[in-house]
Amino acid sequence: MADLLVEPTRERERRARILRSGTIRVDGVTRKAIIRDVSADGALVQSDIELREGDSVELRIKDAQAMLCEVRWVRDNRAGVQFVRKIGVGTGVDALAASHSERQAQSFTMWRD
């Protein structure tokens, strides 16, 4: 019987599903972006900017500090980016998710009233 080569699986970081506006900058060009999810390692970004796997980009979510990232994959107008430095889960991912949930609740309250 042939030996099977089994690749170790990498455990994914916890992701927060968000819809936040921001910007993405590559090669001196800045475009609007929608950040669809975020983890301590990276984010799912949607934008009309042309990205290639391996590009170094600067991602800014709303008024937060810009984060340096590397594009890991691209499909249509979406890309997965990996942060050069992980963001703290307690301060980064949870804060982004909480602010998103608060805005959703406020929108619902405004719509319901």
Describe the structure.
With 113 residues, the protein is an alpha+beta fold. It has one domain: Thrombin, subunit H. It has one helix at residues 89-112, and strands at 16-26, 29-38, 42-47, 56-61, 67-75, 78-83. It has a 6-stranded antiparallel beta barrel with strand order 1-2-3-6-5-4. Strand 2 and strand 3 (42-47) form a beta hairpin. The N and C termini lie far apart (68 Å). The model is unreliable at 104-113 (pLDDT under 50). It comes from Pacificimonas flava. One of its GO terms (molecular function) is cyclic-di-GMP binding.
Number of domains: 1
Number of helices, where a helix is a run of at least 4 consecutive DSSP H or I residues = 1
Please identify the oligomeric state: single chain
- Global outline: globular
Query: What fold name goes in the CATH topology slot?
Result: Thrombin, subunit H
Mean pLDDT: 78
Q: Which structural class fits the helix and strand makeup?
A: alpha+beta
Q: Sheet bearing the most strands, described?
A: 6 strands, antiparallel, barrel
